[in-house]
Amino acid sequence: MPSSIPPLPGLTRYTRWDQIPDGLHTRTQLDRQGLKPAADPVGQVLYHGNCYAPLYALTATVPKRTCSPAQRAVLDRARQLQLVCRRCGEESDEPLGRGRYCDGCRYAMTMWEQHDQAQDLAGELVADQDAVLLVVDVEPDALPNAQVVAVVAVHDAQVLYAAPAGEYGTGERGEVLDRLDVLLADRRVVHEPNFMSPASRYPCALLSLPGQPIQPGPDPRHPWAARSTADPSVARIWSAWFGWVDSPGSTIPSMPRDGQPVPWSRSLDVAADGCSMAGLLRRIADGTAQIWSRAAWTLDGHGVPANAPRLLTGAAR
């Protein structure tokens, strides 16, 4: 309800209900009598202190149109359907609103949609001839040959570049950065980690002193090294596909913890790791990669409905 409804110009104003002459009624009062106005209002009454309701002459009204029995049956059926989940068929006490999913199914469908979008993104990357995986490991406490960097094509797992990363501030590191600037220009770059992975695996670790906090956001000289949650990473794509969550009711796909392995290799050979990740993205795109045994959309046995709407984007599938 608006905070105020201004008076209509040129109409008599009544400030109290007992001032209204017989034969004048508000639209609500007429509706209760099965009538509706057939002419313009002839007055107005103040209510709630700052709102005016139009008043209509009873002599200038007509009966409201009523529904036929068939129309009433259709409306009753439509109202009843608003209480029934279109996925599981359970009936609710309240209308389910847009999409007509109960809370349990809406949760499952939200998780499924992220799984479905992960497959779409993986397929998009596999089909992109210019998409590459950038894999780094610059852990300062690791063996010298662990400080390496590799670039692997996503669509065919071809190793485009692999070299020692060198130490921060040295000419060797500078040459690696220059080579990456040229090789990754105008390419779609996919990283390995998400927030749960070691910081040494982030490409932006190449731009920082060992042990120093990694700053988010793009570097104007090396845009490929940006650390952003908006950028695709293998870990983010796979976690959305896998469907594991770390707490009941959460709709945020998580990376499994407690020593559970991820489905790609993590070794001192980052080129081999990149090829392993390219293979995983292909399996996700093909729909053959494993999903969590308790993934939300599989637990209740209702599965994914045909032509399921996109709950997150609002677009039709």
Give a verbal description of the structure:
With 317 residues, this protein is an alpha+beta fold. The chain has a four-stranded mixed sheet with strand order 1-4-5-2. The protein has a four-stranded mixed sheet with strand order 9-8-7-10, with helices on both faces. β11 and β12 form a beta hairpin. The radius of gyration is 32 Å and the shape is elongated. The two termini are 36 Å apart. The C terminus is likely disordered.
Features:
single chain, about 325 residues, alpha+beta, four-stranded mixed beta sheet, disordered C terminus
Uncertain segments are 313-317
The largest β sheet comes out as: 4 strands, mixed
Strands of the largest sheet, in order across it? 1-4-5-2
Annotation, overall tally of beta strands: 12
> Helix-strand pattern, N to C?
EEHEEEEHHEEEHEEEHHH
Mean pLDDT, rounded to whole units? 85
Rounded to the nearest angstrom, the radius of gyration is: 32 Å
Q: Span between N and C termini?
A: 36 Å
Question: Can you count the helices?
Answer: 7
- Percent in helix: 25-40%
In short:
The chain has helices at 27-32, 69-81, 103-127, 171-183, 234-242, 270-286, 296-299; strands at residues 12-14, 24-25, 35-37, 43-47, 51-57, 61-63, 131-137, 148-153, 159-164, 188-191, 217-219, 222-227.
